[in-house]
Amino acid sequence: MADRKVLTAYEWKENPMDLLQHRWALLSAGNEEIANTMTVSWGGVGILWNKPVCFAFVRPQRHTKQFMDRFDKFSLSFFEENEKNKKALAFCGKASGRDTDKFSVCGFEKEMVEDCLTIAQAKTTLVCKKLFVQRMTEDSFLAEEIKNKNYPYGDYHYVYIGEIEQVITEEDGE
Ligand SMILES: Cc1cc2nc3c(=O)[nH]c(=O)nc-3n(C[C@H](O)[C@H](O)[C@H](O)COP(=O)(O)O)c2cc1C
User: What pLDDT is recorded for position 3?
Assistant: First the structure.
């Protein structure tokens, strides 16, 4: 396994827009015994309450939501861009942890870092401590077309905001 560095969010140099759009990510929560992961491509990083934060958006029907609610930390994992990883992330974005152990099917090893579930094979991992969760409401949409296009069944996302405690990466920082 390549050398990994632990950076602060401010030292991290990769472009999260590019990573999310092209490589997607796995959103994971749990512990060594019970855990789940799912593919996400919507999300973001930024600064809020003077902290480096990460945003994740989870629809209510996702099995992952139970783990996001039960555990204090979650991780966002980005993988090397190759066919194998693209297939694995497509699988984790279709199969549900309700009836499939996505970790074993994809050969992903769980690794606890500071009480946060991470995936050993990831190239870059954001270790996040939950700070906030709130569900989007129908009346908070200012653009009707966004609501109609994305929520024909009213399954508005829950917005999770986590403080980025560490960025574990094989990429160079400073
Ligand atoms: C590229 C891609 C991006 C996705 N992004 C999100 C997302 O941001 N939020 C979400 O709730 N579901 C998203 N999904 C859908 C979930 O990954 C999918 O429903 C998954 O099977 C849920 O697994 P679970 O039931 O084990 O939680 C995405 C799927 C794909 C393929």
Answer: 86
| Architecture of the domain made up of 5-169 | Roll (2.30)
Q: Atom 29 of ligand 1 has which residue's CA nearest to it? A: 93
Ligand 1 atom closest to Cα of residue 100 = 26
Percent of the chain with pLDDT over 90: 95
Rounded distance between C-alpha atoms, residue 16 and residue 23, angstroms: 10
Would you say residue 126 has pLDDT above 80? yes
| 68 pLDDT above the threshold of 60 | yes
For residue 37, the ligand 1 atom closest to its alpha carbon is 26
The finding on whether 130 has its CB within 6 A of some atom of ligand 1 is no
End-to-end CA distance of the chain: 21
- The answer, yes or no, to whether any atom of ligand 1 lies below 6 A from the CB of 97, is yes
